[in-house]
Design goal:
With 142 residues, the chain is mainly α. It has helices spanning 9-39, 43-51, 60-67, 69-91, 95-132. It is 77% helix and 0% strand. Helix 1 (9-39) packs antiparallel against helix 4 and helix 4 (69-91) packs antiparallel against helix 5 (95-132).
Length: 142
Amino acid sequence: MSAVDQRSTFVTVVAWIFIVLSGFGAIIGIMQNIMVQTIFRSEEFGQAMQTAPSQPGLPAFATFAIENVQWLFLAVLLVNVVMLVASIGLLKRRNWARLCFIALMVLSVVWQIVGLGIQASLFSTIRDQFAAAGAHGAPDMG
């Protein structure tokens, strides 16, 4: 009697779902990076950023994101490509792909939690700016 190699349907379905999602994400990331690299590296955009008034109450992470927008879009593209490679490896039942897939899932959970904190901080900053401008006819954001 020969042993039949049973492949989990769950792993196959998860791998195909993430191949499709990360493939679309990589295509979109490539298009976004083409756009970002052509627009944000132009002379006109550089001049506009130099003449733009700085916001004194802007949180540090918002300033960082604005100053490094090209690198952030590139990082998102790289994560999508790594997820695509890991998903293909998961479909082929490679152990390194399983570990990489788990690490990327943990990274995405942590990123979502950090994103909630960033959103709360940003909205409280915006609310404070509206409150400070309330004497000038700005709406009450409370």
